[in-house]
Each structure stands twice: as structure tokens, then as C-alpha cells.
Write a structure and sequence with these properties.
The protein has about 375 residues and is α/β, with parallel strands linked by helices. It folds into 2 domains: about 5-175 and about 345-370, Medium-chain alcohol dehydrogenases, catalytic domain (Quinone Oxidoreductase, Chain A, domain 1, Alpha-Beta Complex); about 175-320, 3-Layer(aba) Sandwich (Rossmann fold). It is built from 12 helices and 19 strands. The strands form 3 sheets. Strands 4, 6, 7, 10, 11, 18 and 19 form a 7-stranded mixed β-sheet that branches. It has a 6-stranded parallel β-sheet with strand order 14-13-12-15-16-17, sandwiched between helices. A hairpin with a 5-residue loop joins strand 1 and strand 2 (about 15-20). Helix 5 (about 175-185) crosses helix 6 (about 200-215). The two termini are about 15 Å apart. The structure holds adenosine-5-diphosphoribose and zinc ion. Zinc ion (ZN) binds next to loops. Zinc ion binds near residues 73, 74 and 174.
Length: about 375
């Protein structure tokens, strides 16, 4: 299919993108100009982009960011152009984008924690990207997938099998790797474990899938919107609790012989649900904080309960994912249907529907909206 993109005299590309000018503004879909592709950069024709709660958190100011920007950080596409020094990919390769590109040289990368790399993302957000009406744009969360095309450092694209369905592979860029990685890498859930998942959006359903595949014996899904619990059951939840009408901690204890769960995953990013996860974990158990919270929201614990509970409270960035290690195998599991990505896609939409997708996410009407671009070629 054809694309509306066109090339400027100096080699930049004019493409349509959803521009966010400030906190609280709607997205404006308009033409932006991508800078010419530098030596270590890659231009990607987007195939699909999921709409994640972290984008909403930037739009509503929960996560601080810079403006004007193009958001979107859960995307897949086809490489359209590479810089002179790029060696990771070739034109035509199918890729999933990562918002956390490991630099492979900082303290954290060398310590085996590439998801905490403090160099790659900074280089990406600050590096050459695009402009709109003469104003410089910031590459949102380093990826800017709410656009027909994006321009990123080569470390941000991970090549995947060309037979993989790109619309579904996009979810590996954030929800699936964050949620499944939280279970497999951050927590290391053992077969037979008991698990609770608080918040059953795209990331929470991925946690449920990760727990199912890890062989958890009990997976309790908790959400305050009953509609989310149906999807949770289809992803592998063995029990569900609607926390708008039921005391979730008491419910989880009742399902675990009064103990609480071995692992409680918080997948909302708010103080009350972090407390809930802490209380739902058994003594000596683990609460994993997957949700991205605000710098201004505080959670309190008594000194006594921290001591006597002997629980592990662990922060979880990007499911402790190493994109180069994890994306190709996770995409393979999506292709085989072992990971149910299709069941997480509530709506396939166009870029122009983006504001309605954010409204629907806030209203809890959808698990995941996925923007599908009709210009990537390839498949699906
Ligand atoms: N109690 C129970 N469930 C809640 C509560 C609450 N107080 N508040 C929100 N939820 C549920 C919502 O009903 C929804 O089903 O949490 C879910 C959040 O889902 P999404 O909005 O789809 O968010 P998602 O994209 O899954 O991201 C979840 O992970 O990556 C981070 O920034 C992201 O913090 C966000 C979290
Ligand atoms: Zn995300």
C-alpha cells in the first residue's frame, strides 16, 4: 500500500503524527518532518502501535515529560532506511521497538540489569528526531510510535521473524514484555506458586499470562471494573475479585487458606493498590510493583508491619527485560499462540482515532487499542 510520506530537499521525511503540545491537551494529528537519518539511526515505517496507560500518564501529567512530543512506545514496523554506520538491521527487516535501549556500557548494563540503563534512553530522548511548524519535537519515551514513521537510534529496534504478525508483535514492545517479564524475570515465579494480580489492563493481563505459563496453581485477578475480570479469566486467572464490591485482601486470603499469596503484582501504579498488593502477599512473600506511579504520590507502611511481615517489596522496570534477549522469543510465542496477544486487542483503530482511544482507556472500555497503519507492507 502507499504512504502519504514525502521527502524534503535535505532528505527529511514528512509524515503524519499525533502531536501532544502540553499536559492535558488532546493529540493533534498533523504533518511533522523527520530529520534526515544520521549514521547510527534507523527510520521505521510503523505497522502498529498499542495505546498504553503510560502514554495517558504522560498526557495527564502523572509521569513528567517534555513537550511538544509524539508519544507511543509499543510499536512494530518495517525498516525503511538505515544510517551509514548501522549494522543491527537492514532495510525491509521487521522490528519491534524498545523504549529502553541498553547502551551495553554503563554500570547497570554491565551488571546484567539493562532495563535500568541510564544512558540509552537519555541519548534517545535528547537525540535528533523531528519538528512541527519549525518547533523541535521530543521523541516520546524515546520511540514516538504514534506516527506513520519514526526515527530512532539503532539500539531501539529489535529484528524479529518476518512471519510474525506485526499487529500483535507490537504488544511485545511494552505490555507483554513488562507483564510477562515481571513474572519470569523480576519475580521468578515457580510452578505451583500462588499469585494475585491487581489491575487487569493490558499489562495486568500479561502478568496473568506469564503466571499461567510459569505454572502458578492459583492466579487471583483483582480489578475494580467487573468487565476486566472476564478477560482475566480468558488469560488464565483461576479466581476473580471485583474490588469495587469485595474486600480484595480478605478474598485473596480466603482463596489461599488464610495465608495470602506467594506473589502479589501491582499493575496500576497507585498508593492504595500498592498497599493492597503488600497486604495480599503472605508473610515472607513478595509484592512486585509493576505499575508506573507518580513522583508525588506516597505510600506508607508501619515499621512494625515491614519487620513482622518479612516480605520482599520489589520495584519492576519493564519486566526486567533485555529486549535483545527477550523480544524474539516472546514474538515467537505470540506467533505460536502460546501467548494470547489477540485476546488483549479490544479495538484496531486508525491514527485519527487516538483521542477516542485515550478516552476509552480512561473509561475502562478497552483492554488495548492498537493503531494499525496501512502503509508498512509485509503482513497482517
Ligand atoms: N483497584 C483495582 N483496579 C484498578 C484500580 C483500583 N483502585 N485502579 C485502576 N484499576 C484497574 C483498571 O480498571 C484497569 O483495568 O487497573 C487497570 C489498568 O489498566 P490500563 O489502564 O489498561 O493500564 P495498563 O496499560 O495495563 O498499565 C498499567 O502499568 O506500565 C504501567 O503505566 C502503566 O501504571 C500503568 C500500569
Ligand atoms: Zn507501556
Amino acid at each position: 500500500m502507499t504512504t502519504g510520506a514525502r521527502t524534503t530537499k535535505d532528505g527529511g521525511q514528512v509524515v503524519r503524527a499525533a502531536v501532544l503540545r502540553q499536559v492535558g491537551s488532546p493529540f493533534e494529528v498533523e504533518e511533522i518532518t523527520l530529520e534526515p537519518v544520521g549514521p547510527r539511526y534507523v527510520r521505521v515505517q510503523m505497522a502498529a502501535s498499542g495505546v498504553c496507560h503510560s502514554d495517558l500518564s504522560v498526557q495527564n501529567g502523572t509521569i513528567p515529560f517534555m513537550f511538544p512530543t509524539v508519544l507511543g512506545h509499543e510499536g512494530s514496523g518495517v525498516v525503511a532506511e538505515i544510517g551509514s554506520a548501522v549494522s543491527r538491521v537492514a532495510v525491509g527487516d521487521h522490528v519491534v521497538l524498545t523504549w529502553m535501549p541498553p547502551c551495553r556500557r554503563c554500570f547497570w548494563c554491565l551488571a546484567g540489569q539493562p532495563m535500568l540503563c541510564n544512558v540509552g534512553m537519555g541519548e534517545s530522548i535528547g537525540g535528533p528526531y523531528a519538528s512541527v511548524g519549525g518547533d523541535k519535537l521530543i521523541r516520546g519515551l524515546g520511540t514516538a510510535t504514534f506516527a506513520e514513521q519514526t526515527l530512532v537510534p539503532e539500539a531501539q529496534v529489535v529484528p524479529v521473524d518476518r512471519a510474525a504478525p506485526l499487529e500483535l508483535a507490537a504488544l511485545v514492545g511494552c505490555a507483554l514484555s513488562t507483564g510477562i517479564g515481571a513474572v519470569w524475570h523480576t519475580a521468578g515465579v515457580e510452578p505451583g506458586s500462588t499469585v494475585a494480580v491487581i489491575g487487569c489492563g493490558g499489562v495486568g493481563l500479561s502478568v496473568i499470562q506469564g503466571a499461567r505459563l510459569a505454572g502458578a496453581s492459583t492466579i487471583v485477578a483483582v480489578d475494580h471494573m467487573g468487565a476486566k475480570l472476564k478477560a482475566a479469566q480468558s488469560m488464565g486467572a483461576t479466581d476473580v475479585i471485583d474490588s469495587s464490591s469485595t474486600d480484595a485482601v480478605a478474598g485473596i486470603q480466603a482463596l489461599t487458606g488464610g495465608l495470602g499469596v506467594d506473589y502479589a503484582f501491582e499493575v496500576v501504579g497507585r498508593a492504595p493498590t500498592i498497599r493492597l498488593a503488600f497486604e495480599a502477599a503472605r508473610r515472607g512473600g513478595t509484592a512486585v510493583l509493576v505499575g508506573a506511579g507518580s513522583p508525588s504520590e506516597e505510600v506508607t507502611f508501619s515499621a512494625f508491619e515491614l519487620f513482622v511481615g518479612a516480605k520482599t517489596l520489589v520495584g519492576c522496570v519493564y519486566g526486567s527485560t533485555d529486549p535483545d534477549r527477550d523480544f524474539p522469543s516472546m514474538v515467537d510465542l505470540v506467533t505460536k499462540g502460546t501467548i494470547d496477544a489477540e485476546g488483549m486487542v479490544s479495538r484496531r483503530i486508525g491514527l485519527d482515532d487516538i483521542n477516542d482511544a485515550f478516552r476509552a482507556m480512561e473509561a475502562g472500555e478497552v483492554v488495548r487499542s492498537v493503531i494499525v497503519f496501512d502503509n508498512a507492507g509485509g503482513d497482517s
